[in-house]
Design goal:
The protein is mostly helical. It is built from 4 helices and 2 strands; from the N terminus they run H-H-E-H-E-H.
């Protein structure tokens, strides 16, 4: 992991029973399309194989706060919450990313 202190805070929070939100692409998009997942995010998800992952998709946020914008703008936002999944640590990274994007 690149950010060891951040990773330790995530693990401490999870072990203490708190939910943690991770944006696996690591930042806002310049185009509105989902960016590739950071390898560190994939490794973290595989490490947390016994913790259910709740896939959440946020649509419309690009229009409310585009990366090139310096303030929030009025926009409709839709949040879609899928069923929890458990991550198989044996699945190849690219296959895991494809699977998570598909749901």
């Amino acid at each position: 992991m690149k950010d060891t202190a951040g990773t330790m805070r995530i693990l401490t929070a999870i072990r203490s029973g708190f939910p943690v939100c991770i944006f696996p692409e690591g930042g806002r998009s310049w185009t509105g399309r989902l960016r590739p997942f950071k390898p560190e995010s994939i490794r973290l998800l595989k490490h947390l194989k016994d913790i259910p992952v709740l896939p959440v998709r946020i649509e419309g946020n690009y229009h409310s706060w585009p990366r090139w914008g310096n303030h929030l703008m009025r926009s409709d936002i839709i949040v879609i919450i899928e069923k929890p999944v458990f991550i198989d640590p044996e699945i190849p990274d690219q296959a895991l990313e494809s699977y998570l994007r598909s749901i």
